[in-house]
């Protein structure tokens, strides 16, 4: 292990000294206009306005690889790429001044930037100063280093990183063009542009750390990021795995990329933590990286973990988005997972991840997901228990399954059922249950109640367009059709007893009508739960409580403790 260089350096110093490569396994360009790009610009403006001598931009960690004679950016690729984008804009603006005014000094500046910071590129010669990862390299070279992007170019959504590069370029261009547009004299335009040019290259400083040992580069990288939130745990873990990859780096990189494709935007850190908790001792996000680093400490273990994560990612995506996946064929599994999505539940994921499809048939998984659905509905959605209180329970059951301490479906269901609140407690909680805002949870509960025992029509998202109706309107003040105190209205209008479902008969203009008018609409509904309202002669708080109790009794049957 050898630390070659460690010092404070200006942007000018470190960028022009070497040619840098961003490894293919590093993430693509990710800085956003509404985040890091605006922060970068504000740092420039602040430095100039406050007349400060320097601004600390961050650390740069590089690996000087003797193996392939390249210098790789292990940490600092985002800020380095952004600096090059900024300097590319500068190059373009100086060149424009020369073209428009034949201003020789501007031409010199433009040539300096091209030579020192961008590099030259042609079919015969490739002397660029920075090479991005595979996904961004060609676009960056063509539009930033050797050419200019087209403002009106339509970038495909699959190339989100290209769009971020494109947007960053024109963000800086617009800001700087506006600034020099305040001056008519070319000399003043040039001087103002030089201020913003010199500010970044001379006054922005970095801690530059160079090592010729890749393992040491990763250790430095991890140490520098361990205390902050600059990187997600998944980024740290990725680098930990790649550090141990050795000659197997390309295989592990392909697995990681396949995992990301399968997850399709799902939080990678959350996935890794749920997977870890499905096999090993429980771990919170804060300690996840530390725990994995302690346990996955050689190339064989890293290889195994990378394969397991890649394989599990498809299942995880199906759990998180059951309606948009064909992973499960069993309709009961899909229904329960969809219900759990509607209830915004995810702490149960480790249990499903732990179920070996070779050992547990679809009918077994369906019963287990149904038991989880009942627990989440009763304990969390209605009784209001903290969902985090069940995270350790689900993780413990999952690890017992993975380590074969539990081997039968009935045992798994029994472990879940013993935590479900009793019918008595469930009814007591349901009697007070209400919703502030109509969302997926309320729709799910009302649809399940509507479908219970119905022989006419099944209400679901696929075949019936339904709306949640407040029987006593959300707004009653000043409405002569509703004689209810503000106190009672505030208390009862969100009760489930005051909610029902309407299909094609729904008409928003009728939502504030009196109960007698609404009853005529309800009588024509195809939904039995709604049509049943015609038995009420009035709609007072007492009527709402009466219906709330009816729904509570029905709910005990819809979500029974004992799963058949």
Features:
single chain, 6-stranded mixed beta sheet, 10 strands, 24 helices, 564 residues, two-stranded antiparallel ribbon, alpha/beta
Measure the end-to-end span: 62 Å
**Uncertain regions spanning at least 5 consecutive residues:** none
As a whole number of angstroms, the C-alpha radius of gyration is 31 Å
Label the structural class.
Answer: alpha/beta
> What do the pLDDT scores average to?
88
How many H/I helical runs? 24
For the largest sheet, list the strands in their spatial order: 1-8-3-4-2-7
Shape: globular
Share of helical residues? 55-70%
Structure description:
With 564 residues, this protein is α/β, with parallel strands linked by helices. The protein has helices at 11-17, 33-49, 77-101, 104-118, 134-145, 160-180, 186-203, 214-225, 233-245, 249-263, 268-279, 285-295, 299-320, 331-342, 349-354, 362-382, 391-402, 409-417, 423-430, 440-451, 486-492, 515-523, 528-531, 541-558, and strands at residues 3-10, 20-21, 55-65, 70-75, 119-121, 126-128, 130-131, 204-211, 467-470, 499-502. The protein has a six-stranded mixed sheet with strand order 1-8-3-4-2-7, sandwiched between helices. It has a two-stranded antiparallel ribbon with strand order 5-6. A two-stranded antiparallel sheet has the order 9-10. The chain is globular, with a radius of gyration of 31 Å.
């Amino acid at each position: 292990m050898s630390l070659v260089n460690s010092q404070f350096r200006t942007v000018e110093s470190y960028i022009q000294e070497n040619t840098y490569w961003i490894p293919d396994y590093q993430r693509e360009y990710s800085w956003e206009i509404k985040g890091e790009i605006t922060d970068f610009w504000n740092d420039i403006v602040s430095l100039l306005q406050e007349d400060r001598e320097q601004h600390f931009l961050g650390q740069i960690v590089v690996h000087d690889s003797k193996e392939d004679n390249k210098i790789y950016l292990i940490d600092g690729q985002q800020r380095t790429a952004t600096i090059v984008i900024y300097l590319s804009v500068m190059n373009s603006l100086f060149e424009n001044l020369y073209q428009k005014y034949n201003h020789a000094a501007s031409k010199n500046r433009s040539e300096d930037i091209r030579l020192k910071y961008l590099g030259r590129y042609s079919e015969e010669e490739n002397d660029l100063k920075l090479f991005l990862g595979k996904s961004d390299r060609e676009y960056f070279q063509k539009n930033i280093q050797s050419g200019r992007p087209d403002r009106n170019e339509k970038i495909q959504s699959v190339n989100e990183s290209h769009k971020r590069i494109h947007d960053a370029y024109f963000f800086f261009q617009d800001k700087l063009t506006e600034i020099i547009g305040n001056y008519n004299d070319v000399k003043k335009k040039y001087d103002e542009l030089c201020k913003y040019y010199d500010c970044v290259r001379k006054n922005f400083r970095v801690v530059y750390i160079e090592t010729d040992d890749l393992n040491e580069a990763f250790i430095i990288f991890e140490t520098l990021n361990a205390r902050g939130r600059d990187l997600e745990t998944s980024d740290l873990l990725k680098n930990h795995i790649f550090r141990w990859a050795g000659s197997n780096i390309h295989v592990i990189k392909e697995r990681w990329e396949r995992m990301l494709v399968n997850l399709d935007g799902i939080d990678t850190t959350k996935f890794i933590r749920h997977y870890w908790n499905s096999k090993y001792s429980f771990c919170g996000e804060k300690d996840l990286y530390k725990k994995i680093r302690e346990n996955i400490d050689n190339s064989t273990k890293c290889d195994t973990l990378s394969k397991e994560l890649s394989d599990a990612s498809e299942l995880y995506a199906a759990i998180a988005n059951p309606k948009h996946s064909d992973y499960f064929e069993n309709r009961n599994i899909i229904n329960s997972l969809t219900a759990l999505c509607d209830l915004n539940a995810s702490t149960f994921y480790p249990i499903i991840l732990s179920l070996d499809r070779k050992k547990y048939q679809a009918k077994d998984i369906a019963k287990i997901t149904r038991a989880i659905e009942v627990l989440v509905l009763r304990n969390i959605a209605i009784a209001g228990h903290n969902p985090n209180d069940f995270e350790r329970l689900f993780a413990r059951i999952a690890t017992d399954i993975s380590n074969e301490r539990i081997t039968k479906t009935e045992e798994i269901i029994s472990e879940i059922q013993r935590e479900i609140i009793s019918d008595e407690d469930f009814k007591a909680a349901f009697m007070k249950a209400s919703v502030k805002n109509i969302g997926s949870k309320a729709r799910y509960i009302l649809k399940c109640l509507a479908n219970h025992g119905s022989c006419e029509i099944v209400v679901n998202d696929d075949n019936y367009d339904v709306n949640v109706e407040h029987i006593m309107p959300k707004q009653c003040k000043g409405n002569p059709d509703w004689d209810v105190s503000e106190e009672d209205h505030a208390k009862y209008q969100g009760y489930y007893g005051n909610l029902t479902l309407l299909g094609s008969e729904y008409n928003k203009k009728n939502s504030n009508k009196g109960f007698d008018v609404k009853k005529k609409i309800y009588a024509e509904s195809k939904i039995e739960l709604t049509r049943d309202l015609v038995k009420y002669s009035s709609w007072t708080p007492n009527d709402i409580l009466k219906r709330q109790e009816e729904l509570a009794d029905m709910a005990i049957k819809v979500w029974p403790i004992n799963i058949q």
